[in-house]
Write a structure and sequence with these properties.
The structure holds 2 protein chains of 2 kinds. Chain A is mainly α. Chain A is 36% helix and 2% strand. Chain A folds into 2 domains: 57-193, Cytochrome Bc1 Complex, Chain D, domain 2, CATH 1.10.760; 197-335, Orthogonal Bundle (Cytochrome Bc1 Complex, Chain D, domain 2). In chain B, 12% of the residues lie in helices and 39% in strands. In chain B, the strands form 3 sheets. In chain B, strands 3, 4, 5, 6, 9, 10, 11, 12, 13 and 16 form a 10-stranded mixed beta sheet that branches. In chain B, strands 1, 2, 7, 15 and 17 form a 5-stranded mixed beta sheet that branches. Residues 1-5 and 9-31 of chain B have low confidence and may be disordered. The chains are: A mainly alpha, B mainly beta. At the A-B interface, α1, α4, α5 and α7 of A face α1 of B.
Chain lengths: 346, 262
């Protein structure tokens, strides 16, 4: 009797296990490796919705491949990385406007990419409300990557390496725009710059020299109300007194809101890695930081939407500018611009 | 010798059998109400007033302007069947979105499940709610690859009507209405509620399905509470006041033509 009970228990248990096993979708669905996003000390809470797009090692790796892949553009020449170069802190080095499909210029200076987990609206005019859908703008813009989303998806779906990368990241080989965009976002979210000399000073691991310290004191007094530490931006849209470029006729935020009061307003950019991201401003009109500081001290043009904080300009002596530029150099983060994890995959 | 099964064996056997049977069941639902066993198929039919609409054929709007249509699409969600006498309503699809594209026959028919009952109205939403406009990359009908998405100023195009008209002053005499806007005063999401033909109340039984044909009248885009001529307004491709006017016009483009059992 005991034997019958034992046999029946064992056999049913085995059957049961087999049945449970057979319920799993595709039997060989690979497990992903969760990646914990670490908020650097002193940084505010993040804005990115990690629960809707949890970071995984495989998703980030797929995103890195996509970021460097020219097939996201019409003629294969313009990956994301063509305008967002790592050595330039993911801006376009030494270019006011970047180059796009068919010998065209972009309409704005490519901003550096870092610390996007703390950002909720993207582009100079804030027109894009979620990092996941940001790549759609450059991919489809006729003067940038000039491609159709369906074409991109089809190109990737024919590539055996991508089939494998999508399977590792999302469980199946299926390539679709949602997966592509989520993976790109995962990679971009990992682009955290928080290890400059400034950060080390804040952590007590380094000290400013006297010029840097003088520059930092000036910065806190004269610049930090818009370029708020530690992200060095308040993400607000402000008119900083630049004249309208008569060729680009770019009114900034007004294009998004259709409101007159937003005319000539652009998002306050972060100053992290500012030495690497030159030239400066939304149209790249200033080729060095001296020109930028000259603008704030004497060049500001008055207009109805000029930011009130700049109504009296920002008076700076030559020594002030010298020291400020010294301080801004402490925002360069070589562990970011040389991070192997952000490089083009081999 | 045959060993008789005792109570213990039976108990263990039953237990294992229950486990065995439940192995694949995802979750048991209790008290979920009557099951939605009635299949409702909605067939959307493009028309211009009383006539069927064919892409490329010439029609006239209330301003007497001749036009052809080359693209006619809209997003649909939150379909309800209602009975205004009993006050009952039933939501047929919780989160699913449909993109009805009159250029693709596969998209003009949608299949839903309803709880059998007597209904006298159908209601649905035209557009994409604000949450889906701010939540990043979507899939299925909301895949941005479907061409109903603004990339430079995030947001879905809720409805599209494109074509040509000799009164348009635009290149190639196009007219183009891409209607979107989801936040605050720019919101163009439209609630639509339609009576059944002859104001009838109809029994949706459990043993059969229903085919409901709903007309979408292109001429409604130009008329209604905010008459808009092609000559004066050939293009609307941004959120704002004009988009809201056109959306409130097309909110009245639907009519239930007939309901048949199948």
């Amino acid at each position: 009797m005991k034997r019958i009970i034992i046999i029946s228990i064992i056999s049913l248990a085995v059957l049961n296990a087999v049945m449970i096993g057979s319920c799993k979708k595709s039997g060989d669905k690979p497990a992903t490796t969760p990646v914990n996003f670490v908020v650097p000390p002193g940084f505010p809470p993040t804005k990115f919705n990690f629960s809707a797009n949890p970071l995984t090692k495989e998703g980030i790796e797929l995103g890195r491949h996509l970021f460097y892949d020219g097939r996201l553009s019409k003629d294969g020449n313009f990956p994301c990385a063509s305008c967002h170069q790592q050595f330039a802190a993911f801006a376009t080095y030494d270019h006011d406007l970047s180059h796009g499909f068919n010998n065209q210029f972009t309409t704005r200076n490519a901003p550096g990419l870092s610390n996007m987990a703390w950002e909720s609206n993207f582009m100079w005019d804030g027109g894009i409300n979620n990092l996941e859908v940001q790549p759609l703008a450059p991919i489809t813009a006729p003067n940038e990557m000039a491609e159709d989303i369906n074409n991109v998806v089809n190109k990737l779906a024919q590539d055996d390496q991508y089939k494998q990368l999508f399977r590792l990241a999302f469980g199946t080989e299926e390539v679709n725009s949602q997966r592509m965009l989520k993976a790109l976002s995962q990679f971009m979210i990992t682009l955290v710059s928080a290890n400059s000399k400034y950060d080390k000073v804040k952590r007590g691991e380094a000290v400013f020299n006297s010029n840097e310290q003088a520059g930092y004191d000036l910065f806190k007094a004269k610049c930090a109300s818009c370029h708020v530490e530690p992200l060095f931006t308040d993400f607000a849209y402000r008119n900083n007194g630049l004249t309208l470029n008569p060729y680009l006729l770019d009114f900034g935020r007004m294009k998004i809101t259709n409101k007159k009061e937003d005319s000539l307003k652009f998002k306050v950019p972060s100053l992290r890695n500012i030495y690497e991201t030159y030239p400066y401003m939304h149209d790249g009109r200033f080729w060095n930081l001296t020109a930028v500081l000259d603008h704030y001290s004497v060049g500001i043009q008055n207009s109805s939407t000029l930011d009130p904080l700049l109504a009296n300009k920002i008076p700076l002596t030559a020594t002030d500018k010298y020291n400020l530029i010294y301080f801004l150099g402490t925002l360069s983060d070589t562990s970011f611009t040389k991070n192997k994890n952000f490089e083009q995959p081999k | 010798m045959r060993t008789p099964l005792d109570k213990k064996t039976l108990l263990v056997g039953c237990l294992m059998a229950v486990l065995f049977c439940s192995a694949c069941q995802k979750s048991l639902r209790f008290g979920a109400g009557p099951a939605p066993t009635h299949t409702l198929t909605i067939q959307f039919k493009p028309v211009v007033d009383g006539d069927s609409l064919e892409y490329g054929n010439t029609y006239q709007n209330i301003f007497g302007e001749p036009y052809t249509v080359s693209n006619f699409k809209f997003y649909l969600c939150q379909v309800d069947l209602l009975n205004t006498d009993s006050g009952k309503s039933y939501r047929l699809n919780k989160d699913e979105y449909f993109l009805v594209n009159f250029g693709d026959r596969n998209t003009t028919r949608i299949f839903l499940k309803a709880v059998p009952s007597t209904y006298n109205r159908i209601a649905f939403t035209i557009g994409v709610d604000s949450i889906r406009n701010v939540s990043g990359a979507q899939a299925g009908a909301l895949d941005p690859a479907n061409g109903m998405f603004w990339t430079w100023n995030t947001g879905y195009i809720m409805a599209k009507l494109e074509g040509h008209s000799s009164v348009s002053n635009q290149p190639n005499q196009v007219f183009e209405y891409h209607i979107g806007g989801f936040s605050g005063s720019d919101n163009v999401v439209q609630k639509v509620s339609l009576v059944f033909p002859l104001n009838a109340a109809i029994v949706f039984g459990s043993d059969r399905g229903t085919l409901m044909t709903i007309a979408a009248n292109a001429n409604a885009w130009f008329s209604g509470s905010n008459p808009t001529s092609i000559a004066s307004t050939p293009v609307c491709t941004t959120p704002g006041v004009l988009a809201k006017k056109i959306a409130s016009n097309y909110a009245n483009m639907f009519e239930v033509l007939n309901i048949v059992s199948e």
